[in-house]
Amino acid sequence: RGRAASGAGTWTFDPVAPNRADQVTVPPGFTADLLIAWGDPVTRDAVRFDVRRQTARAARTQFGYNNDYVGLVPHPARRDRALLVVNHEYTDEPLMFPAGTHTPEEVLEVAIANHGMSVVEVQQGRRPGQWSVVSPRAARYNRRLHDRTTFEVTGPAAGDPRLRTTADPTGRRVLGTFNNCAGGTTPWGTVLSGEENFNQYFDGEVPAGRRESFARYGISGQGRGWSQVDERFDLAQEPNEPYRFGWVVEVDPLDPRSTPRKHSMLGRFKHEGANVTVARSGHVVAYMGDDERGDYLYRFVSRDRFDPRRSTRARRHNLTLLSAGTLSVARLTGDGTEDGRHDGTGEWIRLADWRRSYVPGMSLADVLIDTRLAADRVSPTRMDRPEDVEVNPVNGRVYVALTNNSQRGTALPADEANPVTRSMVRSSLDAPLTPASGNRNGYVLEMMPRRGDHTASDFTWDLMLVCGDPHAQETWFAGFPKQLVSPISCPDNVAFDAVGNLWVSTDGNALGSNDGLFRVPVDGPRRGQVHQFLTVPLGAETCGPFVTADQQAVLIAVQHPGEVDGASFEAPASTWPHTHAWPRPGVVVVRRA
Ligand code: FEO
Ligand code: CA
Ligand code: CA
Ligand code: CA
Predict the structure, then answer these.
(1) How far apart are the C-alpha atoms of 125 and 553, rounded to whole Å?
(2) How many alpha carbons lie under 13 Å from residue 507 in its C-beta half-sphere?
(3) Could you report the per-residue pLDDT of 195-218, keeping only the tens digit for each?
(4) Which intervals of the chain are annotated as region Disordered (predicted)?
């Protein structure tokens, strides 16, 4: 506790001003060091990265592209080490390959292999907050999960005929995990990861009987050409392959030989991530967002209770907790805007448990596989792109990043939980604020479970932040004086420090600045005081974030640096981290200098 009191939660810093710099900009007195980046070795037999001679085989031994989720799991044997677990969400081929160096087929194969996850042993340095990568030869836990890694499906939908393919007649063993966005670390030391925009990887004609199901997930058959090198991505050959993605994945970094799992009980949608908390009853509760305009917030409550003992037997039990439980979806009701606040009550509507479906006309497997269609039938609240959802370990409230929704007020009517239909935006740093339709800057929603019980069927809620420029009328910072906050736009991922401050990273800044990371107190007199802690390079979004257990460092993933319209390997918009003439996504450690 003594260290926490001097850690990230109490750091004083001068907020970073909005900027367009091609670097990670941190406040004076702090330093940002690159920890690991695309192409760095992960496995013991890693192939040396050569941007002009990339192969899928090599990529499966190296740190993949577009790091997103960042977790640090305590090392089982050494206090000075930890296991870094990172998602590799997607690829941006024009920025990855020098022109003329690879055939179209090679580009596709390398791109596919750059997806997945990495587990990397990291070591604390001499100074507080310093971390470095352990040489893969000296690391026992390093692992690269990729398109050839076998995942086991758990829960009631495992083995369903819709999950069976030519390569897997059991419907229980899936190769690969794709488009893994955010995630969470469980109390038993595993990492959860959300398969998000998996719809884009399938080519060909949608089979007649699948039109409604596929359309609800945006599976149009207009894919990225992956079927040219792997026929399982061809809908004509394997019409069931899309049902094998869109799940929450659980990886056990403490056992490098373990089979990672896909948990059907947590439903299938465009999972942003999943964060687990242990309720007072001992049941584990996972909160989840479905990141699409107008989609929903979900909650899973386990059938069995968490075993806090540190035995092998307890851990084996805890590894089963996400296979059976109850899946629900949220409906939020406003109490009227006369009180000057966007707030109200909410309820969790049951969709299914491990024994049965609660949705008329749909079986248990139907609900878990076509979760969006099931939820549509019970009238949940259509939200503005629900992304990361996480419980604040200090105050027990739930925080939801709602990124934006350009269609709010047009295709989607406003409600008290989604009130903004016109936002002030800025096309560049020195441009004036101009109005745009819809919710362009996003929200942070706060949910209070009844009596603090995460298994309760109802809750109250409050829009803590209506993001944007503080000069814009629609913005709200929990009532904190607007002249004292940083502008913030498009919240995406959230984390907490040991004193309960919220840390929010952003993706898609609509105020002319690069994206960044912000710290916000959520209790006490400074509640709502948004301060910008850092900005990321040009074209990048800020992912992670992760506050280390000793509170001495904050980790972020710099995702898609240089992703700007028209940019290419030869004409990059960013060269961050400035190790080469082209950009490399990477993980950064920020600490006090
Ligand atoms: Fe991959 Fe919803 O961000
Ligand atoms: Ca109200
Ligand atoms: Ca995200
Ligand atoms: Ca994002």
Answers:
(1) 12
(2) 27
(3) 999 999 999 999 999 999 999 999
(4) 1-20
Q: From ligand 2's centre to the CA of 343, what distance in Å?
A: 4
**Strand pairing report for 150-154 and 261-263:** parallel
Asked if residue 211 belongs to a domain, the reply is yes
25-50 confidence digits (pLDDT tens): 999 999 999 999 999 999 999 999 99
In a domain, 323, yes or no: no
Q: Is 237 exposed, middle or buried (0-12, 13-18, 19+ CB in 10 A)?
A: middle
- Ligand 1 pocket residue status of 387, Cβ below 6 Å: yes
pTM (predicted TM-score): 0.98
Judge if the beta carbon of residue 89 lies within 6 A of ligand 1.
yes
Q: Does a structural domain hold residue 239?
A: yes
SS3 category, 178 = coil
pLDDT tens for each residue of 331-373: 999 999 999 999 999 999 999 999 999 999 999 999 999 999 9
Q: Is 543 in the pocket of ligand 1 (CB under 6 A)?
A: no
Q: Is residue 221 part of a domain?
A: yes
- CA-CA distance, 541 to 560, in Å (whole number)? 7
What range does the domain containing 238 cover?
A: 197-245
Q: What are phi and psi of 113, to 5 degrees?
A: -70, -15
Number of domains into which the chain is organized: 1
DSSP codes of every residue in 343-365: EEEEEEEEEEESS-B-STT--HH
| Amino acid letter, 204 | G
User: What is residue 540's predicted lDDT score, i.e. its pLDDT?
Assistant: 98
Distance (angstroms) between ligand 4 centre and the Cα of 239 equals 28
CA 478 to centroid of ligand 2, rounded, Å: 13
The mean pLDDT value of the chain amounts to 97
| Tokens matching residue 304 | 């069995």
Question: Encoding tokens for residue 543?
Answer: 């992912």
**Residue 10 in 3-state DSSP?**
helix
Structure tokens at 204: 């060909």
Query: Strands, DSSP E only, in 395-496?
Result: 398-402, 422-425, 434-437, 443-449, 458-466, 476-477, 491-496
pLDDT at 1: 40
Distance from the alpha carbon of residue 75 to the mean position of ligand 1, in angstroms: 28
- Is residue 2 scored above 70 in pLDDT? no
Closest CA to 31 of 553, 567, 525, 483: 553
The tens digit of pLDDT for each residue in 506-525 reads 999 999 999 999 999 999 99
pLDDT at 5: 58
